[in-house]
Amino acid sequence: MTDARLADLATRLPGLRLLTDAADLEHYGRDWTRRWTPAPLAIALPASVEEVQGVMRWASGHGVAVVPSGGRTGLSGGAVAANGELVLSLERMNRVLAFDPVDRMLTVQAGMPLQAVQEAAKAHDLVYPVDFAARGSCTIGGNIATNAGGIRVIRYGNTREWIAGLTVVTAAGERLELNRGLIKNSSGYDLRQLMIASEGTLGIVVEATVRLTSPPPPSQVMLLALPDLGALMQVFALFQSRLSLQAFEFFTDVALRHVLAHGAQRALEGDYPYYVVTEFDAAGEAAQEAALAAFEAGVEQGWILDGVIAQSEAQAAALWRLREGITESVAPRKPYKNDVSVRISAVPAFLQAMQELLGREYPQFEVVWFGHIGDGNLHINVLQPDDLDDAAFIAQCEQVTKRLAATLHDFGGSISAEHGIGLVKRPYLESTRSAAEIALMRGVRRAFDPQGILNPGKLFAPEPT
């Protein structure tokens, strides 16, 4: 606390928890990318909206950059603080504030973990349906900052569809109440939607009112083994036409090997190049018969080589682990990640182009693919060889990402489907957005944050001063 600026902050907000120990600076100053050396000024852990406002007024007065921090599970460097920023962690703001049974809405603080939001909804016999593997550690504020999607987008959409209102603190410390849970509101610009996916560059999301829905009908989970990439879309079209899908996820044999080595249980005998985990409504005998008929039709066409239907909740969880455990299983190999999307109709051609690109450019690397076929979102994990240092590995991967970005541009796709741009994907934003769009985005950012103190360097490079 020898820094005069921090001494002033402590004087202004005597109840604010501030951390400056080296271990805390390292822990809170980075996310899952692990590519930047964390070097924040300090960590602020406010317990109220008023404390967040006080921090931002202090930051504005001193010109101190602020990095908002949730669960720091991001994969794009969006929560990295490597240049003396103040990390503003919302982890203490993690409570349910209100439940409205008529509107079926839940108001929570932004630091609440996604799983806790889901459990709070369940306590009222409702569901908050956005879901993904990091549910236990990611926060609702971080989900909003990146418009997170996950494994059930095919049924429920992204985070954006479930946010009814936001409380936001601006760079100047003002408190904004955006939309206030209204279903219809045609009173000008929807600033709530601007905040979603803004990666903390327009304001600090401190509270969220989320929409809830009825629990889905009973479902079944099926694991399928497929012969090739072409069969993926054939099986998806077949199942989508006959079943009410909740999820449709694919992964490769390489991904499966890593998950099995990490402790998951094999569900099918034999080795196959591609796999699908799908979940679908199975409320009655007719729905279950339809699922079996769809499976048999896929086998007859040669699109499905083998499969298994879960016979219990435990077996369903075990099948889902084969997909959800991939990220954790490859983490020790420090993967270079791409998170891309194209229109669903373009998936087959894009998969073929991507397969050729990766085979040509990454012959010396192990590549793990998986993704959300039903919404056009694909994840590529390139695993770092033991004999290659970090800098050389990243440099080689970034050269290929330039070609991948060009391919995405040709397909009208996005370099970031659900993890944000952050620092990692900033050089490739122009493959997704036109120069005119980026100029307008910069203008929006200047309007909300004239000093450029909110998460600087994320999304696009800071403008010259």
From TrEMBL:
GO MF terms, alphabetically ordered: FAD binding; oxidoreductase activity
UniProt keyword list: FAD, Flavoprotein, Oxidoreductase
Cofactor(s) listed in the protein's UniProt record: FAD
GO biological process: respiratory electron transport chain
InterPro entries in alphabetical order: FAD-bd_oxidored_4_C (IPR004113), FAD-bd_PCMH (IPR016166), FAD-bd_PCMH-like_sf (IPR036318), FAD-bd_PCMH_sub2 (IPR016169), FAD-linked_Oxase-like_C (IPR016164), FAD-oxidored/transferase_4 (IPR051264), Oxid_FAD_bind_N (IPR006094), Vanillyl_alc_oxidase_C-sub2 (IPR016171)
Domain FAD-binding PCMH-type: residue ranges: 36-215
Listed Pfam families: FAD-oxidase_C, FAD_binding_4
Spans through the membrane: none
Family: Belongs to the FAD-binding oxidoreductase/transferase type 4 family.
Name of protein: FAD-linked oxidase
Source organism: Dyella thiooxydans
